[in-house]
Amino acid sequence: MALDGLEAAVHASVGTSKLARSKAQLNVVRYADDFVVTGVSKDVLESRVLPAVRQFMAARGLELSEEKTRITNIAEGFDFLGQNVRKYGGKLLIKPAKKSIKSLLDKAREVIKGNASVTQEALIRRLNPIIRGWAMYHRHVVAKAAFSTIDSHIWHLLWKWARRRHPTKGARWVRQRYFRRDGHRSWDFATRSSTEDDTCGLQLFRATTVAIQRHVKIRGLANPFDPAWDLYLARRRSAKRSVGLPGATQWR
């Protein structure tokens, strides 16, 4: 709420005429107290927009974080809400930020090292919500490579965890004790099922099992408080729930 009106202040920084605003091509993306301002001119951003934002913040007893504030070219990219926004050869791609990947792996490493003596099932139950939550958050961007990286690193951490628990046992014994076959995969970290075969019981969640679902931008004029938009929003919610089902598409 404290930043309500920021967009108006940003646009007003280049003047009130439609021509001036059209040339500046300013856009504001805001989430809670984090925001990004984009424009075509670095000079305009430095000399007009940044001072206007500082003034806007000061009037509310706030100030910009010097650590998080910077002006950069889109070709160099920037991180926002755990994701990296950057142009590659003229194509804009949004990917999980390296800091976000590192943070997840650090958390997984902390959980694994801190649970050296728990059962395999208990460890899986601790890790699964962490991995699933991170993957679901990033499923709308270019994240397949990041998902593979996450799965690979965590697998190696778990292999070391299993080997340390049984220093006198060989690799084959450890593999048979902690890893199971799942379809064409024979190295899934999982408990043994209740059947006699080597199939999985409780499995470690793999980020790569999360399907990439491109986000469909909501129509700019859509208003949840306006009954005229009820049908559109209801169809959008229904389509979002059905994504992943055969033949399902996002409602635009």
From TrEMBL:
Q: Which domain of life is it from?
A: Bacteria
InterPro entries in UniProt: DNA/RNA_pol_sf, GrpII_Intron_Splice-Mob/Def, Mat_intron_G2, RT_dom
Gene Ontology molecular function terms on file:
RNA-directed DNA polymerase activity
User: Which residues are in the Reverse transcriptase domain?
Assistant: 1-85
Please give the PROSITE patterns that the UniProt record associates with this protein.
Answer: RT_POL (PS50878)
Write down the SUPFAM superfamilies for this protein, in alphabetical order.
DNA/RNA polymerases
The text of the family note is: Belongs to the bacterial reverse transcriptase family.
Q: What is this protein called?
A: RNA-directed DNA polymerase
Q: Please give the organism.
A: Cupriavidus taiwanensis
